[in-house]
Amino acid sequence: MMNNMEENIEPMQNKNRIFVYLLVFFFAVFIGTGLFLLLTSKSKTTGEKISTVKINENKNEDVDFPVEEPNQVDDASFTNRQENLVMPSVAPSNGSLTLETDLPGNQMNIGDMVELKLVADSADKNIVGYDVVMYYDSLAFDFDRALSSLPDYNIFTYKKGHFFTITGLKNLQSAPSPMVKATVATFTFTATKAGKFEFSLRASNDKDKTDLITDNTEVLVPALNQVMVDVK
């Protein structure tokens, strides 16, 4: 009987040993797999770092990525750039355009006509055309006519409110020549209202400008004047 019991115990011990071996094996595999996954996760985290930004609406906080700073320009560099800039200059006055009248004492009566002469000086430069902007009180004077005093010039006029614009163009067949204190045109007005009024040449009105054009298409900016008239 003892021999039978010993024979039954030995197979059971063998089974227990196999079970223990299997547990050790599975435990080792589990630990190895865990270590492998842990190492793999750390490697990916190290190789693929993602920057994040925390936004706080109430506070300004630093962020964990580099911020591109605007270009800084020192005073010396800024000064050098200013010196290298080419600024447009205002064209200086060249020659003159003036109004003249033969009224004694510049006085006249209502209903009388006044003739104004437009006198030009181009500072020895050849002129092929001119533009003139003249201001007058259209409620105190009626415009009658404008005539060219130079036979080789054609003039064109139009009114806009209190402004009167004249354009003179030289005939293409005529040789360019300077204007030397020459009367280029005359304008006639009739007084309709008593008072003191001005007739003045203006540098510009809206898009219209006063200038002299040379044969080299140079635009001259002339000096201008005004005439006061006393209507009784």
From TrEMBL:
Mention one GO molecular function. carbohydrate binding
UniProt keywords, alphabetically: Membrane, Transmembrane, Transmembrane helix
Kindly give the InterPro entries that the UniProt entry links to this protein: CBM2/CBM3_carb-bd_dom_sf
The portions of this protein that span the membrane are: 20-39
Q: What is the recorded name of this protein? A: Cohesin domain-containing protein
**Organism name:** Candidatus Roizmanbacteria bacterium GW2011_GWA2_35_19
